[in-house]
Each structure stands twice: as C-alpha cells, then as structure tokens.
Design brief:
7-stranded antiparallel sheet; alpha+beta; elongated; 821 residues
Length: 821
C-alpha cells in the first residue's frame, strides 16, 4: 500500500477546493484511505493518519472512528506518537464516553515516566478531560508531582489539581500540604498556577478560606509577591508594555479580593499594597488599565479605608475620560454598583458622567443614563433634570420610555416646588408623550388636582401646549381633563404666575372639538375630550346650547365608548338636568392611588376574565324616596352594590348608562383618576349608606411579610393589607428585586388560586427589574376569600435575562394566618 500523504499536503489540497461539495469529496476520499490504513493495523503511519483526522475534526467533519487509534498511540513508547495520541484524546474523547476509562492506566504510567515532557503530556490530558473516576484514581500521582522540585512539572500539576478539585471537591484536603511552599517559588509560571489553585480552594470551601486567612497567613505572602512585582526593574522575560507580569498581578488581586471580603484583619493587611498599585501603575496602556480595574474591584469588595475607596472611584472617573469605549463602559458599570455606598465620591464625577450621555455608543449611553438617575438628589435635581430633559429630547426612541419614567420618579421624589414638578412633567409629555408609561396621565392629573394654587397656571400652560398639535396623546388627555375641570379659570384669566391669555368659551370648545375629530386622537383621548366638554356645561354660561349639540352628535358615533358616554350625557341634559351640577362638580383632592397603572387584569385560576369585588348593598331605606328613584331609574335597576374603586366596573345592560361615567369617569379601562362618586358632597343622598372609613386598612404591622420566591437573583416579597369595608378581601403587594449584574426585562408575574377564591391582578409598575437591587417592580393583588380558607397560590414568572427567555413556576403556601383568617 502506498504511503499516505502528509498533513501539510492534505491542508494544501483542501484549501484548493473551490466549493463546499469539492471539499467534502476530498475529505471523504481521505477518510476512506485512513479507515483502510486503520483496518490493516498500519503502525508506521498511524501517527500521521490521526494528525490528519484531527485537522478534519477541526474543520467540523466526523472523526470519532479514530478514538481507539488515539489510545494505541498513547500506549506507544515513542514521544511523537504519545504527543499526537494525547492531543487526539483531548479533542475526540470526553467523560461521557466509556472509552476514556481505558486511558487511566496509560496516564498513570506516564505520570511516573522518567521524561518530564511525557509527564507533562499526561498532566495536560488529565487536567483537560479527566472524569471524576480518573481524578480519584490519579490524584495521588498529581499530588506527588506538585511537591517535585521541577518547576515545569509543578505548574502543570497545579493546573491539573484545579481540575481534580472541580471534579471531586472532597479531595481538596489532599493538596493542602503541597500548597505551603508553592508561593516561595521564584518561577512565575509556578506562582501563577499556584494562585489559581489557591483561588479555587478558597472559593469552593469556607473552611479552606478561614484556614488560609488564619493559619497559613496567605495575605502577607501575596502582598510580598505583589510588592516585588511593582518594585522590580525591567525584566524582558515578564515585561508586557512596561509592566512586570500583569497576568500574575491580576490573579493575585483577585485572590486578595476573596481573602479580604468580610474580614477586617485581612483587609487591613492589604490596604497599603492596594494603594501602591493604584498610584504606581501606568495608565497609558491597556495592560495598566486592566490592573487598575482589578484593583478597584478589590478595594470595593473588601473592608477598605474610606480614603482608598475615594481613590478607587477617582480611578473610575479617569476611565470615563479614556478614548476606549470598553473602558468607559466598564467604569460606568462599576460606578453604578458603588453609587449606593459611596454616593458623595461618585457625585464628584457627575459632570463627566453627564457628558457620557452624548456618547455615540448606545451601551455607554444607557449606563450613563442609569447612573445619572442614581445621582439625582435634592441639591442637584434642577441641573440634573435639565441635562436629562435635553437627553430625552435628542436620544433614540428605545431610550425615551426608560428616561421618561426615570424623570417622573426623580421629579416626584426631589421636586423643589409644585410648579417646577408640573413644568417638568409637562416638558416630558411634550417631548416624549407617546413613550411614557400608562400611569403617567393619572399621576399627573392627581398632582395637578392636589396643587390647588396652581390650577389656573396649569390649565393655561396645557391649553397653549396643545394648540394645533395633538400628536402627544398623553399630553392631550391631561390637557382635556384640566380644561374640563378648570375651564372657567382659563376663560377668566386668573393666572398670576405668568401673563394671562385672553380666551373665549368658543375658542376652548373649538380646541376640544378638534381633538374629537382629529385622526391622531385615540379612542381614550376622545373620551377625555367629550367628558371635558360635558363638564364645561356647568362651568361656562354662554355655550351650553353648543355643548348640547356636540354631545347629541356623538350619540350615534360608531365608537361604542363615545356613543355610550354621549347617550348618558344627553340623558343628564334632558331627564336629570337637576342632578347635572352635582354630578359634574369639581373633583376633590385625590389621595395617592394604590394601583400601579390604569390597566387592570383579573385572573381567576389562571384564566383572564373581568370581575368585580362587591360588598353587601346598603339598605335602600336610608335614601330619600323620590331622589333615590330618579337615580335608580337612571341606572336601569334598583340593585346597587358599591364596588372597590380600583376594580373594573361591570356595565349594566340598560340604555341608561352607568353611574361611574356620570360621576366624571374619564377612562373606562380603570384609570385611578376616575370614579370619585362616594366623595361628592351634593346631593347628600349619594353618601348615605356608605362607610366613611378608608376602603383598605393601611396599618399592616400585625401581618408579617414573606419571601415568596428567591432564585437566580430574582427575589419576590409579599406584604399584606386587609380591607376595612370587606374583611374577606386581602390586598397583597408584591415587590420584585434583581441582585444580578444585568437588568431583567419583559417581566410578567402571573398567579392562580383555588376555585374557592377570587383573584384580581393589577398592572405592575414596570416590566424591567433593575440590576444590583437598584430598584423594584411593585404589583398589587386582591384576593377575595369569603370562606376564610387557608390561602394557597401558584405563581408563574417569565422574563428575559442575559439574552435568554426565563420561565419558572412556584407554589406559595406559607401565607401568615393573619392574612386569611
């Protein structure tokens, strides 16, 4: 049989292939020749054939039929055969295949071989693909080589020991005596692998960590080695861009970080050397920046002095000025982790962080935005909001929603005045109204309602903001609501904060009618506008007939929502005109709603359906007969049951409409702004039979909170409240936090309860759980438990994390008895 071609010739031939099919043909032809050679037990060219087979394996072609040939090469006495055999074993074999166990005896013999290079091959193979059985059988030989004086073998034995410990952690103590003298070695290769071995042992065993801290005095040894590296002169063997062995320095810094974590004595011993590394390392090259970054992480993780922490944050501040985008991103991420503990030190770099908002790289821009919001406080809120509003105006669409939400939260928390708060939120709605969260509209309406002295100023600003521009729907909705409530202030020109404008009643109605007919107006926005026009019938005096005409036109609208409102409002004008002033009077000051958004989903046993939590009807005898009959006739029935205001309202099947619309409901999807019916002062019979106590008991000190879920960095806590009006209703507030280093996005919480319960899920505050526990998502659950049974719940969590879709189910059975008894 002719001699097979050499590996070099095969590579040259394959590279001449012009198509994939031509390459496959060449490979198949060569594989057939190799199989024939293997069948003939050709020992002369076995090494060459296996080498060619490994090259084909690297190209992605099957080469499993060469596994046994690798074992034959390992058993050979020739070094060249052993080298290819061990390489083939590392590439073609793993612990899932029983064939690898046949190598155990060969590896054991080679570990005791007289040639160090053969021993090195065996150590590399065992450290690469040794199974737990092989590691148990050969750990003794590895431990002997770890004590040898040969530095070439010691460094390979140390890495092999790391693999053994990962596979069989209980063998860790076997290597403990051998580690005592490893750090006294002069060879940098041995030092590097020794630090890797010690790091593995400390990470896997708290007992080992305590042993190395107290008995072995490991920290002083590492400090000595690190100091020698910093102070040593130029060494061409270890120099990288003017820095002595940066790889060893980084490994030592990581091990110091583990040893100093939560340990005062160890942290004290390494403070000085960390300060030296931070001040003496050259930053002009990337190598120095890598060492400085590891130094910063170590300083922040141990119990370091305050001055050292400030030095670390200043290093990160210098990173922000670096031209390399990766270094800037790393600095922003690190500052975001430390801003909670070292807020004042990070504040010094606020201007640099704000400048990063203008960066072209979207990753840097997002991190800078998150860090900017973390830096906002009562002292700098005006300046930071100015920068963030400018960013909101110019940023890409994918940033606008998160930026708008952050501005809303910061403004609510740190607003220096109500006028500034209102101006800021209106600026956001004007700039990025289409991107704001659904709860922005009711929250702003609540803010405006509670700022009594700002009503005239606000309605004038909103009127001017929507003149001729209806593209920002949330802004138009707020403006319509305010014009409906405070249109009389707009027309009278009572604004003191700025120069009043002269507006007539007809001009105000022109704007609202334009909103109604605009193609850009959503159905919800038209509902706001129609209700505003109706309210103006009690605020304006000269245009009531025009308002009646507009309302009657929409009684035949193809939009069922508008049609229903118009029919009800027409009924008010005709049959119940004596009730109209009371039903449309100005809204009272609102309390902060417990809901987290206008959209409410009711889920019963996993199925989504509308539901209403009801209380017992009040005695009808408490109401004056004639006025009560008028009201009941309008509702289309005599069975009125007050409902919890945050629940969606069920619609009676009568042409008369529903009570909540007549009481100023602006958003039939359940906006927290709507349905203040029980609070209207006139006529007085509307209050009869309704309790004056709050609907929910907000003093929950007697009900302990629980942790319902804690896995993969996601933690969900339950806190409880009981309803005052209906003891069978339990209100559960969930708080979801994220301790990982990346945000969890598209978060959805679902829950199901047994059939004897009724469950209502309100909207979450957000769909993104920020990383590093820097924020939470809240969501409200209401549970009706009329039979007072023990509460049980099954929850389903779905979210995206690190580019993967995550999903998990869990049972919650540890509800405190006070929450359901």
């Amino acid at each position: 049989m002719p001699a097979p071609i050499r590996l070099r010739e095969l590579i040259r031939t394959i590279r001449t292939a012009r198509t994939q099919a031509e390459e496959r043909e060449m490979i198949q032809k060569e594989c057939a020749a190799i199989r024939s050679s293997f069948r003939e037990e050709d020992n002369t060219y076995r090494c060459r054939n296996v080498a060619k087979l490994l090259y084909m394996h690297m190209l992605g072609y099957p080469a499993h039929f060469g596994q046994l040939e690798c074992l034959k090469l390992i058993a050979s006495q020739k070094f060249t055969d052993k080298r290819i055999g061990y390489l083939g074993a590392m590439l073609l074999l793993d612990e899932r295949q029983d064939v690898h166990l046949l190598m155990t005896n060969c590896i054991k013999n080679d570990l005791n071989h007289s040639t160090q290079y053969v021993q090195g091959l065996a150590l590399c193979t065992l450290g690469c693909m040794g199974s737990s059985e092989m590691c148990r059988d050969l750990a003794g030989e590895v431990e002997k080589l770890l004590k040898t004086s040969n530095s070439y073998l010691r460094k390979k034995a140390a890495l092999c020991a790391v693999h053994v410990i990962r596979k069989v952690p209980e063998l860790m103590e076997m290597f403990l005596p051998a580690t005592k003298n490893l750090l006294n070695e002069k060879n940098h290769g041995v030092l590097h692998t020794s630090v890797v071995l010690l790091t593995e042992m400390c990470e896997r065993s708290p007992d080992m960590l305590a042993h190395f801290r107290k008995n072995e005095k490991l920290v002083p040894q590492l400090v000595r080695i690190l100091k020698n590296l910093i102070m040593s002169g130029y060494s061409p063997e270890h120099d990288v861009s003017g820095i002595s062995d940066p790889f060893l320095q980084v490994r030592i810094l990581r091990l110091l970080r583990i040893l100093g974590r939560n340990d005062d004595d160890s942290s004290e011993a390494m403070n000085d050397i960390l300060a030296q590394v931070a001040t003496n390392t050259e930053t002009s090259k990337n190598v120095g920046n890598a060492i400085l970054y590891e130094t910063v992480l170590t300083i922040m993780d141990i119990k370091s002095e305050s001055g050292l922490r400030v030095l670390a944050i200043n290093i990160l501040g210098r990173f922000l000025l670096n031209n390399d985008k990766n270094i800037r991103y790393v600095a922003l991420t690190s500052l975001l982790k430390t801003v909670q503990t070292d807020h004042n030190a990070v504040q010094r770099h606020r201007s640099t962080i704000v400048d990063c908002l203008k960066d072209l790289d979207v990753s840097i821009k997002r991190r800078a935005m998150e860090l900017s919001f973390a830096l906002v406080n009562g002292n700098n809120v005006r300046g930071m909001m100015k920068e963030l509003l400018y960013f909101l105006d110019s940023c890409e669409p994918e940033f606008k929603a998160d930026c708008a939400s952050g501005i809303f939260l910061a403004a609510e928390k740190y607003a220096p005045s109500k006028r500034w708060h209102i101006d800021t939120i209106m600026r956001v709605l004007t700039t990025a109204g289409s991107y704001v969260r659904d709860d922005a509209v009711p929250n702003l309406i609540q803010l405006i309602t509670n700022s009594v002295e700002m009503h005239a100023y606000t309605v004038q600003r909103l009127y001017k903001a929507i003149l001729g521009d209806y593209s920002q729907q949330p802004l138009v909705q707020v403006a319509s609501w305010c014009i409906g409530e405070y249109g009389d202030l707009l027309v009278s020109g009572q604004c003191e904060e700025e120069e009043p404008i002269q507006v007539t009643e007809d001009e105000v109605l022109d704007i609202l009618e334009s909103v109604l007919i605009s193609n850009m107006s959503a159905s919800v926005t038209r509902g706001y506008a129609l209700t505003a026009i109706m309210k103006l019938s009690t605020r304006f005096t000269c245009t009531v007939n025009r308002i009646k005409k507009v309302v009657s036109i929409y009684g035949s609208s193809i939009d069922v929502e508008l049609q229903q409102r118009a029919v009800e409002y027409n009924a008010l004008f005709k049959k119940y005109d004596h009730m109209r002033p009371a039903l449309l009077e100005r809204m009272p000051v609102m309390e902060k709603a417990t809901t987290n958004g206008p959209t409410e989903i009711v889920q019963t046993n996993g199925e989504t359906e509308p539901a209403v939590l009801e209380t017992k009807p009040p005695p009808s005898g408490l109401q004056p007969a004639s006025q009560a009959n008028d009201l009941l006739d309008l509702l289309g029935g005599s069975d009125i049951t007050p409902v919890i205001p945050t629940a969606p309202t069920s619609k009676p099947a009568s042409a008369g409409g529903e009570l909540l619309d007549l009481l100023g409901d602006l958003n039939l999807t359940g906006s927290p702004v709507s349905a203040p019916a029980p609070q209207i002062a006139q006529p007085s019979f509307l209050l009869d039979g309704l309790s004056s106590q709050p609907l929910f008991n907000d003093i929950a000190a007697g009900i302990p909170s629980i942790t319902a879920y804690n896995k993969n960095g996601l933690k969900i806590d339950f806190t409880f409240e009981r309803s005052n009006t209906n003891p069978s209703v339990t209100v559960i507030t969930i708080q979801a936090s994220n301790s990982t280093e990346l945000d969890m996005t598209d978060f959805v919480f679902q829950a199901a309860v047994p059939k004897t319960f009724q469950l209502q899920l309100l909207s979450p505050s957000s769909s993104v759980i920020p990383a590093f526990n820097s924020g939470t998502i809240t969501q409200v659950i209401k549970v009706l438990n009329p039979q007072k049974q023990q509460l049980r719940m099954r929850i389903k969590l779905t979210y995206n994390h690190k580019g993967s879709a995550m999903q998990d189910l869990a049972e919650v059975n540890n509800f405190p008895p006070q929450s359901w008894q």
